[in-house]
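seq:
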Amino acid sequence: MLSGGSVSVSTANLSGKCPSCGASNPPSERYCQSCGASLSV
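struct:
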């Protein structure tokens, strides 16, 4: 059990929107299906 601790969760790109071209992608994708850019930071 955690007490007094904190858990860090990355919420960088849960929407799946490509930061490069703006295309929508499934949240499970690591790369944009449109331009191939990395979806993770």
